[in-house]
Amino acid sequence: MFRELQIQTAKRREFIDITRLISDTVQEIGDGLVLVFSPHTTAAVTINENWDPDVLHDFLLFWDQQVPKAFPGFRHGEGNSDSHILTSVFGPSTTVMVHNGKLKMGQWQGIYFCEFDGPRMRTCWIQTVAT
Amino acid sequence: MFRELQIQTAKRREFIDITRLISDTVQEIGDGLVLVFSPHTTAAVTINENWDPDVLHDFLLFWDQQVPKAFPGFRHGEGNSDSHILTSVFGPSTTVMVHNGKLKMGQWQGIYFCEFDGPRMRTCWIQTVAT
Amino acid sequence: MFRELQIQTAKRREFIDITRLISDTVQEIGDGLVLVFSPHTTAAVTINENWDPDVLHDFLLFWDQQVPKAFPGFRHGEGNSDSHILTSVFGPSTTVMVHNGKLKMGQWQGIYFCEFDGPRMRTCWIQTVAT
Question: Are C110 and B93 in contact (CB under 8 A)?
Answer without folding.
Answer: no
